[in-house]
Amino acid sequence: MKKSLVLFQIYLIITLSIVFTLLLNPQNVSAETTTQDTASCCAKAKNGQSCVGGITQEQCEQGYSPVSCDNLNECKNRGCCKLDGNCVKGVLQGSCSGEYYNDAECNIGQCQPKCCVLGNGCSLMGEEKCQELGGTTNDAADIGSCNQVCESRSKGCCKSEEGCSYASGDNCGEEFFTNQACTRVSGCTCNNDNPTTACSGNDLYSYDSCGNPTLKERCDARAGSICGDKDGDGKYSCEDMNCKNTQDNPLVDENGDGVLNNDGNLRKNGESWCEYQSAVGLGLDLPGTSHYLHACINGKEEVQMCGEGNRNKICVYDNSEQTALNYIQDSRAMCIDNDYQECLSCNDENNLK
Amino acid sequence: MLKKRGQVSTFVIIGVLVLFVFIFVFMLRDSIREKFRGTVDREGYLISQMNQIKKTINTCLVKETDKAVKLLGESGGYFNPEDYVTYHGTKIAKLCENIPQEKICNAKPLSIENTNKVLKNYLQTEIKNCIDLNPYRKKDYTLEAGELNLDVSIKETEIITQLNYPITLKLDNTEVKNEEIINNVKMPLGKAIQLTNTILSEEAITGNFDVMTMSLLSKGEYTIRERKSYPNKFYMIDYNGLYKFNIGIEGEA
Description:
The complex is a heterodimer.
Chain A: H1 2-24, H2 26-36, E1 41-45, E2 50-53, E3 60-65, E4 78-83, E5 86-92, E6 99-101, E7 114-118, E8 121-125, H3 127-132, E9 136-138, H4 143-152, E10 155-160, E11 163-168, E12 175-178, E13 196-200, E14 203-207, E15 213-218, E16 225-228, E17 237-240, E18 272-276, E19 291-297, E20 300-305, E21 313-322, E22 327-337, H5 340-345
Antiparallel strand pairs in A: 1-2, 1-3, 4-5, 4-6, 7-8, 7-9, 10-11, 10-12, 13-14, 14-15, 16-17, 18-19, 19-20, 21-22
Chain B: H1 2-27, H2 29-40, H3 42-74, E1 84-87, E2 90-98, E3 105-107, H4 112-130, H5 134-137, E4 142-145, E5 149-154, E6 159-164, E7 167-171, E8 174-177, E9 181-185, H6 189-206, H7 211-217, E10 223-229, E11 232-238, E12 244-249
Parallel strand pairs in B: 2-12
Antiparallel strand pairs in B: 1-2, 2-3, 4-7, 5-6, 6-9, 7-8, 10-11, 11-12
Helix pairs in contact in B: 3-4
């Protein structure tokens, strides 16, 4: 009896001490639960990022909330943001430091480009961007009518005390000679000692000291020649943007002509084609292999894997013959979804017709 | 023999005297130089010292701006991004946030104004740490340095930095002050930000961006490459080796 009483007393001492400890320190228990819940959202972090979740108050510059960003309207609402004169679609409200509109697709008047007249050129752009560049906007809504605005403006030689320049009549405050090059206007001295070059569309123009344009060359885009200044030295020319030697897997006959190693030849600018790691189609693809989309982009061969590495996309191509334009092969390729599920449905006789 | 000994002692004495004179002149070299300079060109001396200081500051400004703008491009528009996706160990700012069970994402576009601030804050600290004026403080003049102030302006193809770090060199009554230093870094950060927002706009609505067409239309100005590191996607803009800018798009795991 005495023994059981002693054991009961020991039991009471142990259990009561645990109960009292828990009762006297309730903060410790709740503190542990709070630290486990790390949900937080910062409207603007110290490093400049917006709507950042899971950071500490010290890392946050403004708008710290102890709830997840999904629960804050400004980090959940999706709309259109007009930023630096351009409209960006599908933007989080809290990440928009410009003007925010509720239309995620930006189908609003403020985002419709306007026809901007800049010097002698016209192009579609945002109204603010146009004003920033010193241009003026007009009502032409599409690129066709916008170009017409510029074409309708007469150009010619503007003669002033400072000298002569070939420009639009609108910008000439003094004597203007419509449709006349300054070389033909008496009293104008133009020279071609240091001509400058520039591109208009894909045409290369040379300009003398008065700005009179002379067409130097029409760059043949279909043959891979693009008017541009690739090295950025200010000298424009028709540059060959074709890819001379392209990569080829010598084990696969991609073009299907029966020769394995002749696929890596010259490719024209803009051409795209497929490269495979093994034989493809009809169950021939090896496990672990992927399809690759190659393209010749401005003289460089660019490679892109189709899909995420699990062949959820495949590469398909088409060689179009355009003999009338003297093109033998002009390959176009693309990555498309690999609908392997449809093959499985063929096993079901109900799907067979 | 005695005569020769006497000759040697004379030479030794003269040698010791010459040595003493040399040590004496060496010890008083600063005050002698100071007296000489005071009469000749105190201002010229301070100007030459100031030019060296300017060179030190300019080297830091150019080096640090170049480094910072490159780093900013590599990490997707923010330094040490808090909200990021990783590509081969590099933290790239997440500029489009995944929407669960949807192909599209929520865009977080970059603004020139905000990037200006980000770059300014980062550069101000880096330049301050880089400029070492200690070698100039140990000289015979007094150097007083004020507060370092930096202004950054991101343009389409360049970044203009304006550094105002007032330094005064004083020697007796002569005083020389420095001027503001302006530097241009030719990197198309402004253009990269605009292009980034175009990509984000398309990704946020369609969940895709046609890199090939965009690269082709640039007529060789830049190339955009799309890379995947499951579940995320990355766009890498390359201005022909001159400048690189990375964009991180969050995917769904």
